[in-house]
Write a structure and sequence with these properties.
Largest sheet of chain A: 2 strands, antiparallel
Number of strands of chain A: 7
Radius of gyration of chain B: 19 Å
Largest sheet of chain B: none
Shape of chain A: globular
Helix content of chain A: 55-70%
Strand content of chain B: under 5%
Largest interface: A-B, 89 and 89 residues
Oligomer: heterodimer
Number of helices of chain B: 11
Radius of gyration of chain A: 27 Å
Structural class of chain A: mainly alpha
C-alpha cells in the first residue's frame, strides 16, 4: 500500500511539474499531463481497494519545521472509499480529457491546464487521506484555489470571472467555519493531529460540541452546496472546462461529505442528540427538492447538471441524516444502513454526474453552445454520446435496474425504518422526508427526460446542431467507461455492499453485510427479507425476457416487420423545428403549479399593426425566475459589506506616508501593550 | 423451482389475457350508462389483433428510441405486474422487488413515454410529455405515502408479504381507518397514473385535453398495439394492487388446485368489479382542468398523510 501511495504521489507530482516544461507543444503536453493523471488514478483505484480490504489503516507521516504541522496521512476504510471514488472518476475523466483538450489548443495554455488538473486531483486525494488538521486545511485550501484557477480558464468572458470570484468568496467563508471547527478541537486536544481530536482527554462540553456540529455543517456544507449555501455552485461548476466541471460536481463536493462524516462520526464519536440527525435530514430534504426544482427551470445544460448536484447532495444527506437519527437512539444497524445508503449514492453520483457532465462537454465540443434550445436531433448525429447520456439520465432519474435506483431505494428503506424510533414526531418526519424524496425523484425524471429529449431527439433546432459531428475516440472511451460502471454498480450490489460495509462498520460500530445481502448476494434485503427486498439482477433479467416476449408476440401476431417511413404529421404543412416543443414550454405547467417557489416574472410586450389590433407586428417575451436565496439572503450581506467598505475608504487614502504612520502607530501601541 | 416457474408464467399469461378484457368492461359500462349498447366485451382483443397486422408508419424524424420504447414499456409494465400477487398470495418473484421497485418500474415506462412524445417533433407529443411529467410528479409522493401507511400496518413493504398476512388476518390492527384512508388515496393515484377521468381521458383525441394519447399519437401498427396493451396492463396492475392489498380475501394462500381455482375466480370478480366502478366514475365526473389536477392529487396526499398520523395515534 505504501508503494501504491508513493507511485500515486509521484505520478501526480510529475503531472504537475512536467507539462509546463514543454512550452509550445500542446499535443505533447496534453498526452503527458493526462497520461500521468491516468496512471496516478489507476494507482488510486488500487490504493482505494487495498485500503478498503486492509486489516489495519495505513499511516505515514513526515514532520515539518512549522509548529503543529505534520504531513501525516492515514488511509482507513472511510478515506480509502473516497480515494476510490475520486480515482475512478478521475480515471475516466482523464481519458476523456485527452480528446477534449484539443478544443483548447491555441486558446489556453495546455501545460498550465494539465498541471492544474493534476494538482486538483492530487489535492482532493490528499484532503481525504490527511491525518492532521493543519495539513488538512492546507490541502483543502489548495483544492479550492486550484479549482478556482481551473474555473477561470476562460477568463476572457466576464461571466466566468464573476463565477470565479463568487466561488472564491463563498469557499473562503466556508473555510473560516472549518477553521473554527478545528480550533474547537485544538483547544481541547492541544494538537492538530486527528488522533488527538479522536481521543480527547476530557470530552468537549455540550455547548462546544453543538458549536462544532454547526460550524462543520456550515463550513463543509458550503463546499457541498447544501441549500441555502449552494448559490455559488450553479455559477462556478458550469464555468469551468467540462472535464473539470465533471470532477468538481462529481467528486469535489464529495470531499465535504467525507469531512462531515469524519467530524461527526470519528471526532465526535457518533454520540449525538436527536436533533442533529433531524437537522441533517431537513437540510437534505430541502436541498434535494429545491435543487431539482431549480434544475428543471435551467436551459443551460451545464447549469442544469450543477443544480442536480445540489439535489443529489441532498439525497446523500438524507441517508446520512437518517443514519444519525438512528444512531442517536442506539439503533446501530439502521444507522449503518442509512450511512451505507448515503455512501452508495455518493459513489453513484460521482460516476453518473461525471458521465453527464462529460456528455454536456461533448455537446459543447460538437455544437459550441450550452443552450438546450439550440440542440435537438443529436442522437442521429452523435449516437455514442447520446447512448451514454441516456444511461446517465436513467441513472440520475433512479430508474431500475441501474445504479441510481439501488442507492435511492436504500435511502427510501432507511427512511421507512423510522417507525422503529421511539418518538412519534420522528415517526412522522421520516416518512414525510421519504415523500419529499419521492417528489424529488420524479421531478429528476422529468428534468432528465427534458434534458435528453430536447437535446437528442426530434429535429435540430439550430445550424450548430444540424452540423454536429460525433466526438473523438478518447472522449467516447471515457464516457463509455463511466456508463459501464453505472450499469455495473447497479447490477452488482453484492460486490459494492461488502466494501461499503467495511466503511460503515467502524462508524456505526456494527457490521450489517449479512443483514443487507440476501440469497447469496443476489438480493438486497435491509433488516430482513420479510420487510423488503429488491434484486436488480432479477429485475434486469425480467425486463430482458419480457421485452423478448414483446418481440415474440409482435412477430407471432403481425408476422415480419415491414415499416414505412413517412414525415411527422404537421397539420398539413411541413414540420419545422419552430413547431417543436421548447424547453421553456416543457416545464411551463410545473412552473405554474409551483409558482410560489419560483416567483416567475413574465413580461409580454406586443406591438400591434396600426391597421388592426388583431395582428401583432412584434412580440417580446421575457421570463425570469426569482433567485430567491440570492435576493433575500445574499444581497443584504453584500450590500452591508459594500457600505462598510465605503466608510472604511477614509482610512485608505492611498498615501504612502499615511500607511507608514499607521505602521508606526501600530508598533507603538503593540509595544505599550506588551510592556 | 418448476412450480415457481409455472406460477410466473401463469401470472404473465393472466396479465396478458385479462388486461384487454378490463378495458372492454370499462368501455361497456360507459356505453350502457350513455344508453348505448356498446361494443362487445372482447372488442379490445380484436383491436389488438388488427393493430398487430397493420403496417406501422414510422416518422422520419424519430430515432431508435421511438421503436425501442414500445418493448421497454411492455416489459417494464409486465415486470411490475409480476411483483403484485394476483391469484396466489405468495409470488416466487417476491424477492425481486418490493412496492417501491414497482413504482419505479412503472416510472421507467413513463420516462421513455415522455421521450417518445418529444421524439417525433410534433407539438402534440411535446404537450403530452410535458403534462405527463407534471401529473407523474404530483402522484408519486401521494403514492409513496399511501404505500407506506399500508406497509406500516402489515409490517412489510413486500407485496406478497402484505397480501399474505392480510389474507390470513395476521397482525392486523382492529381499527381499519388508516387502511381506508390509504385506500382512497391509492384509488385517486390509480386514476391519475392510468390516465382516467378526471385527470385524463383515454377516449379523447382533442389536442387541448389529451395527455397519454398525445404522447403516443405517432404510433401505429404493432407499436401502437404494444403501447395500448401496456396501458391496459398498467391499469390492471393498479386494480390488482387495490383489490389484493385492501381486500385479499379469497386469494390462494396455499398452492392446492382448489385454492388456485377459487383464487382465480375471486380475482376476476374483484378486478371486474373495480373496472365497473371506474366506468361509473368516468361517466359521472367531468375531466378536470390541468391546473386543477394538482388540488385533486393534493387531496390524495393529505389522505395518505392522515392515514399515517392515524396509524400512530391508534398505536398510542
Amino acid at each position: 500500500m505504501t508503494a501504491l501511495l508513493f507511485c500515486l504521489l509521484a505520478c501526480y507530482t510529475a503531472g504537475i511539474l512536467l507539462p509546463p516544461c514543454l512550452p509550445g507543444r500542446p499535443k505533447a503536453q496534453n498526452v503527458l499531463a493526462n497520461g500521468l493523471a491516468i496512471a496516478a488514478s489507476l494507482f488510486g483505484v488500487l490504493l482505494g481497494l487495498a485500503g478498503l480490504l486492509a486489516a489495519a489503516p495505513l499511516t505515514a507521516s513526515i514532520s515539518s519545521t512549522l509548529p503543529f504541522l505534520t504531513f501525516a496521512v492515514r488511509i482507513d476504510p472511510l478515506a480509502a472509499f473516497f480515494v476510490l471514488t475520486i480515482s475512478l472518476a478521475g480515471l475516466a475523466v482523464s481519458i476523456y480529457a485527452l480528446g477534449y483538450l484539443t478544443e483548447f489548443y491555441g486558446r489556453s495554455s495546455i501545460g498550465l491546464m494539465g498541471a492544474l488538473y493534476n494538482g486538483f486531483l492530487l489535492s482532493m486525494t490528499l484532503v481525504v487521506i490527511a491525518d492532521n488538521g493543519f495539513f488538512f486545511l492546507i490541502v483543502w485550501e489548495l483544492m479550492s484555489l486550484v479549482s478556482y484557477f481551473l474555473v477561470v480558464t476562460e477568463h476572457e468572458k466576464s461571466e466566468v470571472r464573476y463565477a470565479g470570484l463568487f466561488y472564491l468568496i463563498m469557499t473562503h467563508v466556508g473555510t473560516a467555519f472549518i477553521i473554527l471547527t478545528f480550533l474547537i478541537f485544538f483547544q481541547e486536544a492541544g494538537s492538530f493531529s486527528f488522533a488527538a481530536f479522536r481521543h480527547l482527554e476530557q470530552p468537549l462540553p455540550e455547548g462546544l460540541r453543538t458549536l462544532a456540529f454547526l460550524a462543520a455543517l456550515v463550513g463543509f456544507g458550503t463546499k457541498a452546496g447544501i441549500v441555502p449555501l449552494h448559490v455559488w455552485l450553479p455559477y462556478a461548476h458550469p464555468a469551468a472546462p467540462s472535464h473539470v466541471s465533471a470532477l468538481m460536481s462529481g467528486v469535489m463536493i464529495k470531499t465535504a461529505i467525507y469531512a462531515l462524516l469524519r467530524v461527526y462520526f470519528d471526532f465526535l464519536g457518533g454520540q449525538f442528540p436527536w436533533w442533529w440527525g433531524f437537522t441533517i435530514l431537513a437540510v437534505g430534504a430541502v436541498s434535494a427538492l429545491l435543487g431539482v426544482m431549480y434544475a428543471l427551470m435551467e436551459h443551460d445544460l451545464k447549469s442544469l447538471l450543477a443544480f442536480s448536484s445540489v439535489e443529489n447532495i441532498g439525497i446523500i444527506l438524507l441517508g446520512i441524516g437518517a443514519g444519525m437519527t438512528f444512531q442517536a437512539y442506539g439503533l446501530k444497524e439502521f444507522a449503518a444502513l442509512g450511512l451505507l445508503a448515503g455512501l452508495y449514492h455518493t459513489i453513484n453520483h460521482a460516476l453518473f454526474k461525471a458521465l453527464l457532465f462529460l456528455g454536456a462537454g461533448s455537446l459543447l465540443y460538437a455544437t459550441h453552445t450550452r443552450n438546450m434550445e439550440e440542440y435537438g436531433g443529436l442522437l442521429r448525429r452523435m449516437p455514442w454520446t447520446g447512448f451514454c447520456f441516456l444511461v446517465g439520465s436513467v441513472s440520475v432519474a433512479a430508474l431500475p435496474p441501474i445504479n441510481g435506483f439501488v442507492s435511492e431505494w436504500l435511502v427510501f428503506q432507511s427512511l421507512f425504518l423510522g417507525f422503529h424510533l421511539p418518538v412519534v414526531l420522528l415517526n412522522l418526519i421520516l416518512p414525510i422526508a421519504a415523500a419529499m424524496l419521492a417528489l424529488t425523484g420524479v421531478l429528476a425524471l422529468a428534468c432528465f427526460a427534458k434534458a435528453f429529449g430536447l437535446s437528442f431527439l426530434a429535429l435540430p433546432r439550430s445550424a450548430h446542431a444540424r452540423h454536429a459531428e460525433e466526438i473523438p475516440v478518447a472522449m467516447r472511451l471515457g464516457m463509455g467507461g463511466l456508463a459501464a460502471a453505472c450499469v455495473f454498480l447497479g447490477l452488482a450490489p453484492m460486490v459494492v455492499v461488502p466494501l461499503l460495509d467495511r466503511v460503515t462498520e467502524p462508524l456505526a460500530g456494527v457490521s450489517i453485510e449479512g443483514r443487507v445481502l440476501a440469497l447469496d448476494g443476489w438480493a438486497l434485503a435491509p433488516t430482513n427479507v420479510e420487510f423488503s427486498s429488491i434484486s436488480t439482477p432479477a429485475i434486469a433479467v425480467m425486463l430482458g425476457a419480457l421485452a423478448g416476449l414483446g418481440l415474440l408476440l409482435a412477430w407471432a401476431f403481425g408476422g415480419r416487420l415491414r415499416k414505412r417511413a413517412y414525415k411527422t404529421w404537421g397539420c398539413g404543412i411541413n414540420l419545422t423545428p419552430r413547431m417543436e416543443y421548447t424547453a421553456t414550454g416543457f416545464v411551463q405547467p410545473i412552473k405554474r403549479i409551483f409558482s410560489t417557489l419560483y416567483q416567475p416574472t413574465i413580461k409580454l410586450e406586443t406591438e400591434f399593426l396600426e391597421e388592426s389590433h388583431y395582428f401583432a407586428k412584434h412580440r417580446r417575451f421575457e421570463f425570469h425566475i426569482e433567485p430567491v436565496f440570492q435576493k433575500y439572503l445574499y444581497d443584504p450581506v453584500v450590500l452591508f459589506f459594500s457600505a462598510v467598505a465605503d466608510r472604511l475608504r477614509i482610512v485608505q487614502a492611498g498615501s504612502l506616508h499615511l500607511y507608514l504612520a499607521y505602521i508606526f502607530v501600530t508598533l507603538v501601541v503593540l509595544l505599550l501593550v506588551a510592556v | 423451482m418448476l412450480q415457481s416457474l409455472a406460477l410466473v408464467v401463469a401470472q404473465v399469461i393472466l396479465f396478458l389475457v385479462v388486461s384487454p378484457f378490463i378495458v372492454g368492461v370499462i368501455r361497456k359500462v360507459k356505453a350502457r350508462l350513455q344508453c348505448r349498447r356498446g361494443a362487445s366485451l372482447f372488442q379490445p382483443y380484436a383491436d389488438l389483433a388488427k393493430l398487430f397486422r397493420k403496417q406501422p408508419v414510422v416518422s422520419t424524424t424519430t430515432s431508435w428510441i421511438f421503436t425501442a420504447t414500445p418493448y421497454i414499456l411492455f416489459a417494464s409494465t409486465l415486470a411490475a405486474g409480476l411483483l403484485v400477487p394476483a391469484f396466489a398470495s405468495q409470488m416466487p418473484l417476491n424477492f425481486a422487488g418490493n412496492i417501491i421497485a414497482l413504482v419505479y418500474l412503472l416510472a421507467l415506462g413513463t420516462f421513455f413515454l415522455i421521450l417518445v412524445g418529444l421524439d417525433a417533433g410534433s407539438a402534440f407529443g411535446g404537450m403530452g410529455s410535458s403534462r405527463e411529467a407534471i401529473v407523474a410528479s404530483l402522484t408519486e409522493p401521494a403514492m409513496i405515502m399511501s404505500i407506506f401507511a399500508i406497509a406500516l400496518t402489515a409490517g412489510s413493504t413486500n407485496l406478497s408479504t402484505i397480501v399474505h398476512k392480510t389474507a390470513l388476518l395476521e397482525g392486523i390492527v382492529t381499527d381499519p381507518s388508516p387502511h381506508l384512508m390509504a385506500l382512497a388515496a391509492l384509488f385517486i393515484v390509480a386514476l391519475a397514473e392510468t390516465g382516467r377521468v378526471p385527470v385524463d381521458n383515454p377516449a379523447t383525441h382533442l389536442e387541448l385535453t389529451m395527455i397519454h394519447e398525445a404522447m403516443v399519437l405517432e404510433y401505429s401498427g404493432r407499436y401502437l398495439a404494444l403501447v395500448e396493451w401496456a396501458a391496459g396492463m398498467k391499469l390492471l396492475v393498479f386494480l390488482t394492487l387495490i383489490a389484493n392489498v385492501f381486500a385479499p380475501w379469497g386469494i390462494a394462500t396455499s398452492l392446492t388446485p382448489a385454492a388456485i381455482g377459487i383464487g382465480l375466480a375471486v380475482y376476476l370478480v374483484k378486478v371486474s368489479g373495480l373496472a365497473v366502478l371506474i366506468g361509473v366514475i368516468e361517466s359521472m365526473f367531468a375531466k378536470l382542468r390541468l391546473f386543477r389536477v394538482s388540488e385533486f392529487l393534493g387531496v390524495a396526499f393529505i389522505l395518505a398523510l392522515l392515514a399515517l398520523v392515524f396509524f400512530y395515534i391508534l398505536r398510542g
